[in-house]
Amino acid sequence: MLKGKKIAVIGVGMVGKAIISGLLRSHTVDPRDIIGSTAHEETARKAAEELGVEVLTDNRKLIGGRDIVIISVKPKTVPKVLAEIRDLLEPEQLLISVAAAVRTRTIEEGLGKPVPVVRAMPNMPCLVRQGMTVLCAGRFADRGHLELSREVFSAVGRVAVVDDEELMDPVTALSGAGPAYAYIIIEALAEGGVKMGLPRGLATELAAQTLLGSAAMVLETGEHPALLKDMVTTPAGVTVDGIMALEEGGIRVDLIKAVMAATERARALLR
Ligand SMILES: NC(=O)c1ccc[n+]([C@@H]2O[C@H](COP(=O)([O-])OP(=O)(O)OC[C@H]3O[C@@H](n4cnc5c(N)ncnc54)[C@H](OP(=O)(O)O)[C@@H]3O)[C@@H](O)[C@H]2O)c1
């Protein structure tokens, strides 16, 4: 579905760049079919050089003839961008927004016409094509628009879809913010290794690959994480002592509270 489609990315920052380079590396889109924009000439020039696609600073020049327009600017800049492009966008085009906390209804109202809108919440590992993106359709987007959006984000990792937009707040708190929690866990595990005499580089590699491999086990086997944990925990073995220390520290409740707190913050943003 994506082959031959013309794509504009408004806001070629961290996320915009990750999407463009993922699409290019997947060979589904020709570099001549992608155009981007930034706010400043200097960043436009650098992004164009880095990605090998055209990057402008005038959003209005991006819209004509595009099948998909992706908005990847900061949430507070979205209304300004919508006001700039609203008269140029047509209902035949698909608008995808990755802006955290910006509702599809807000975008639809900002456009004032029935342009299909899909809201996406990607995360940072999109940079290494191991991202997790969750999609949610607006009022005028149908299954075809969701499928097209799924193809875009499949170029940078896994994709899931939710029907209820309210779920985008816990999604933002879990997979959107989640890499930060994972980095803290990796850093802390590595610190434990260092405390027990491992060189820091090796300790960090061990911690990161252990999380990566364990995550792959959950996704590939489809097994409940508790069952996989039990498989590692041999009777009277080493692991159970580690688990006892973790439970004493309250890691489970801490992680649950992290997702709860970040969800509340996502709900309160832009309201
Ligand atoms: N970072 C994450 O992990 C993450 C995860 C999920 C969703 N998101 C969402 O993704 C969006 C982008 O985040 P980011 O981390 O990629 O931000 P970023 O790195 O700061 O990138 C923002 C980009 O927008 C450009 N820009 C600013 N005003 C513009 C305008 N009026 N017209 C065109 N381009 C404009 C900036 O250009 P200049 O550099 O020239 O100023 C920059 O290239 C945000 O809405 C965020 O909520 C981020």
What does this structure look like?
The radius of gyration is 21 Å and the shape is elongated. Helix 3 (78-85) links the parallel strand 4 and strand 5. Helix 6 packs across helix 11 (251-268) and helix 7 (178-195) crosses helix 8. It has helices at residues 14-25, 41-51, 78-85, 104-111, 143-154, 168-176, 178-195, 200-221, 225-232, 239-249, 251-268, and strands at 7-10, 34-37, 54-56, 68-71, 94-97, 117-121, 131-137, 157-161. The longest helix is centred in the C-terminal third of the chain and has 22 residues, at 200-221. The protein is α/β, with parallel strands linked by helices and 271 residues long. It has 2 domains: 7-168, Rossmann fold, CATH 3.40.50; 176-268, ProC C-terminal domain-like fold, CATH 1.10.3730.10. The structure holds NADP nicotinamide-adenine-dinucleotide phosphate (NAP). NADP nicotinamide-adenine-dinucleotide phosphate is lined by residues 10-16, 37-40, 43, 59, 72-75, 77, 80-81, 98-100, 121-124, 176. NADP nicotinamide-adenine-dinucleotide phosphate binds next to helix 1 and helix 3.
